[in-house]
Amino acid sequence: MEFTAKQIAQFVNGQIEGDENATVSSFAKIEEGTAGSISFLANAKYTHHIYETQSSVVLLDKSITIDRPVNCTLIKVDNARDCVARLLQLYESMKPKKEGIDGLAFIAPSATIGEHVYIGPFACIGEGAVIGNGTVIHPHATVGENVKVGDDCILYPHACIYHDCQVGNRVILHAGAVIGADGFGFAPNMETQHYDKIPQIGNVIIEDDVEIGANTCVDRSTMGSTYIRKDVKLDNLVQIAHNTDIGAHTVMSAQVGIAGSTKVGEWCMFGGQVGIAGHIQIGNRVFLGAQSGVPGSIKDNQTLIGTPPMEQKPYFKAQAVFRRLPDMYRQLNDLQKEVERLKGELAGRE
Known about the structure:
Blueprint: E1 3-4, H1 5-12, E2 15-17, E3 23-24, E4 26-27, E5 37-41, E6 57-61, E7 73-77, H2 80-93, E8 100-101, E9 106-107, E10 112-113, E11 118-119, E12 124-125, E13 130-131, E14 136-137, E15 142-143, E16 148-149, E17 154-155, E18 160-161, E19 166-167, E20 172-173, E21 178-181, E22 186-189, E23 194-197, E24 203-206, E25 211-212, E26 217-219, E27 225-228, E28 233-234, E29 239-240, E30 245-246, E31 251-252, E32 257-258, E33 263-264, E34 269-270, E35 275-276, E36 281-282, E37 286-288, E38 293-294, E39 302-305, E40 310-311, H3 312-323, H4 325-349
Parallel strand pairs: 4-5, 5-6, 6-7, 8-11, 9-12, 10-13, 11-14, 12-15, 13-16, 14-17, 15-18, 16-19, 17-20, 18-21, 19-24, 20-25, 21-26, 24-27, 25-28, 26-29, 27-30, 28-31, 29-32, 30-33, 31-34, 32-35, 33-36, 34-37, 35-38, 37-39
Antiparallel strand pairs: 1-3, 2-7, 22-23, 39-40
């Protein structure tokens, strides 16, 4: 697919400086640009790259000043990052979509398959499963018994949905994602001296427009459902335990772990490796910095970091003190020795 600078400018409502007939057919970082590619510049500290880039077209934030000639065609916009996102979405939507069922796929006789579906080789669709219209199931993906998958979903290779789970429309499951594995439920048995497994008889319900990263796990509930609400985005290697409820529009970076029976509100953002205890409630619009550990409930509209989490300003002040602890410890020892010496002198005078 090839586009001219003029077509792109019309699509993003930008202002052209240079050759409006310059054509592009690929995207590239500005420092790695080649002829025929489009790049973007949204941060002034990278401005030096625009004088050297070989990209044919560069989307440029209007707030950035260019003080000498460049070889590329510029398209000036209010927000270059947003414009690139829109262009990437357009580019992706124009790719041809696969359809048809590969002869090496297994589909149970009682499964229901919608229209314009693609099912790749060695994919497995279980008894009673329902696959919606336009859904793409890549090789080696597994859809268990009585699973319902909505319209226009994508299941990448080795994604696995266990029995009885439900997936909404326009959901993306990346490679190795596991939906509906057993929750971590075991009870110690002192008579037999081992753990008894607690059957996990619930399911997972994923609502519309959710994206779940590679090797992320969402466990089925002990009873009832584990919920991933609409428009949630989970990065790779995230663990969502049984009976949790993740609110709409919440996003989580890699290696976040949510313990069981916790409710997370809407529009939350969690940095990498955040850990959240079980049986608590996180409010709406809570922002947690990377590696925060959350032992208790948090109210709405807070930005926190650390373990236990605190507001950013006190946290960074505490970290500054923490770095000084070795010196402070030596000073304390010296003071203690001085006090003991003075006590000795006073005792000698009495």
